[in-house]
Amino acid sequence: MTLNLAHRGFSGKYPENTMIAFQKAFEVGADGIELDVQLTNDGTVVIFHDDTLERLTSSKGQLTNYTLEELKSLSINSKGQEGLAEQKIPTLKEYFEWVQDKNLLTNIELKTVNGNDIGLEKKVLKMIKEYGLENQIIISSFQKENMIRVKKLNATIQTGLLISKCTKQIIQKAKEIGMNYIHPNALSLNEELIEYADNYDLKINAWTINEKLDLEKAVKVGINAIITDFPDRLKKIQDKLSV
Questions:
Q1: Are 24 and 242 a contacting pair, CB within 8 Å?
Q2: Selection from 141, 69, 148 nearest residue 112 by Cα
Q3: Which of 2, 7, 137, 218 does the annotation list as catalytic?
Q4: In terms of residue numbers, what domain contains 70?
Q5: Of 12, 153, 35, whose CA–CA distance to 94 is shortest?
Q6: 49 tagged catalytic
């Protein structure tokens, strides 16, 4: 059965990449969590998608220019939900403390500028090992350079190349650099490319699929995983089709 990966947690209903979004995704039956990591100015791995702070907080500027203490003083915009506790930018350590006793897959997307080596891969891999989560992690990035470094540091960790527009050439490249998965934009997929990836023994985790009919179609096609903002919708479809 196709896996249900919650995109930045249950981000269709809760503030993205926050502990409440991760908890709610788990509660509705997601098989895993997709999240984004980057480094603070003082070298802490935090969970946050954007390069800048404007969209999700009351502050502005590059996240990488802020220390952890400065970031922890900010609150994540709560999508106007009354009664929702104030949410902070979580660290990867906080997430690992929460997830380590749960049967959840975690897809960690590395966010770096142009794939530059700033030590993010090394820190993330070290933490994965410390928490004994090697068998529950996929590391992904749009930047081939990031993924090549990950494989050099840990040849056995599961990896996926993120793809905006899927082509046969990119599928070939993903295989050449040792990827286990491709993570394509679902809009760029077709049956020919799905079969082509299968011939290269590359599993497909597609993003971001939210509408009911699209979710049903993707499950029936049989790709490895769907990355969705609404894990509750996908869970209902999974349950219906598994009967």
A1: no
A2: 141
A3: 7
A4: 3-242
A5: 35
A6: yes
Q: Write out the chain in H/E/C secondary structure.
A: CCEEEEECCCCCCCCCCCHHHHHHHHHCCCCEEEEEEEECCCCCEEECCCCECCCCCCCCCEHHHCCHHHHHCCCCCCCCCCCCCCCCCCEHHHHHHHHCCCCCEEEEEECCHHHCCCCHHHHHHHHHHHCCCHHHEEEEECCHHHHHHHHHHCCCCEEEEEECCCCHHHHHHHHHCCCCEEEEEHHHCCHHHHHHHHHCCCEEEEECCCCHHHHHHHHHHCCCEEEECCHHHHHHHHHHHHC
Distance CA 177, CA 101 (A): 32
Q: Give 83's contacts (C-beta < 8 A, 6+ positions apart).
A: none
Given this model, what pLDDT does residue 83 score? 59
Q: What is the pLDDT of residues 91-149, one digit of tens each?
A: 999 999 999 999 999 999 999 887 888 899 999 999 999 999 999 999 999 999 999 99
Tell me the pLDDT tens digit for each residue of 182-227.
999 999 999 999 999 999 999 999 999 999 999 999 999 999 999 9
HSE value, Cβ hemisphere, 13 Å, CA-based, for 195:
3
Place of tokens 């509660």: 27
Domain count, the chain: 1
For residues 51-79, give the mean pLDDT. 96
Instruction: Give me the catalytic one of 49, 149, 151, 203.
Output: 49
Q: What is the CATH number of the domain that holds 212?
A: 3.20.20.190
State how far the Cα of 10 lies from the Cα of 228, in Å rounded to an integer.
Answer: 8
Is 7 noted as a catalytic residue in this protein? Answer: yes
